[in-house]
Automatic annotation (TrEMBL):
UniProt KW Coiled coil keyword: no
The keyword Glycoprotein appears for this protein: no
Coiled coil spans: none
Keyword entries, A-Z: Hydrolase
Pfam families: Hydrolase (PF00702)
Protein name: Haloacid dehalogenase type II
């Protein structure tokens, strides 16, 4: 801890500060018209959504698909899920209203219980930067819905790619005007922290039920149970 000197804290948003699966489940459950979905059925549709987003973002990062903002990918995922849920006749395209309503569920995500208080506590001691794969518009709505407090919120849309592309983490470094090693990247996803680490940022893993846990070979600077634990480790009272 004595070797960790931090001048700004960078936060992932989706999964780290907001419960993304919970918000998507709510949107899936509100599909109209749709058959009654049991819990396993909802989870299958949630997985369908997540796999679509992960696959298409990876294709964009790899250069196999032109850049599209998260809004467009959410609409694609919503159409796939709406069809699978029976929201449209077999072989038909789900109605625009159905797809749009479901896509917007990706912007109505509840914060984790410790998120709002944790950010407020840290904001009194460090500049806080949100760094998300969500588009600018989606990030604005996410922040407002969940009550997230930032000094600056950055979207991967500004780099026209997605994390873990180094260009996204470079946005935070540029805005902060600091050497990468003076920024602490906080995330519940080990893959996200590895991406930040590759650019020289310091890293903090925060455990969440929906995150991507570290592997035995990962070496992050801090490991925290929640934001309160993180604040304590950073010396914030």
């Amino acid at each position: 801890m004595a070797e960790l000197t931090i001048d700004a804290v960078v936060f992932d948003v989706l999964g780290t500060l907001v419960d993304e699966p919970a918000g998507l489940r709510a949107g899936i459950g509100a599909l109209t018209p749709s058959p009654a979905l049991d819990a396993p059925g909802t989870e299958r549709l949630l997985l369908l959504w997540q796999r679509h987003i992960e696959r298409e973002q990876r294709r964009i990062v790899d250069g196999d698909r032109p850049y599209l903002p998260s809004d467009a990918l959410d609409r694609e995922a919503a159409e796939v899920v709406a069809r699978a849920a029976g929201a449209a006749d077999p072989g038909a395209v789900a109605t625009p209203d159905t797809v749009e309503s479901l896509a917007r569920a990706a912007r109505r995500l509840p914060p984790w219980p410790d998120t709002v208080a944790g950010l407020a506590r840290l904001a009194g001691h460090f500049p806080l930067i949100g760094l998300s794969n969500a588009s600018r518009t989606a990030l604005l709505e996410l922040n407002a819905h969940a009550g997230l407090r930032w000094h600056q919120a950055l979207s991967a849309e500004d780099a026209r790619t997605y994390k873990p592309d180094p260009a996204v983490y470079r946005l935070a470094v540029t805005v902060a005007g600091l050497p990468p090693e003076r920024l602490l990247m906080v995330a519940a996803h080990a893959w996200d922290l590895r991406g930040a680490q590759a650019l020289g940022l310091r890293t903090a893993y925060v455990a969440r039920p929906v995150g991507d846990p570290p592997t035995p070979s990962d070496r992050f600077d801090l490991y925290a149970e929640d934001l309160s634990d993180l604040a304590g480790q950073l010396g914030v009272s």
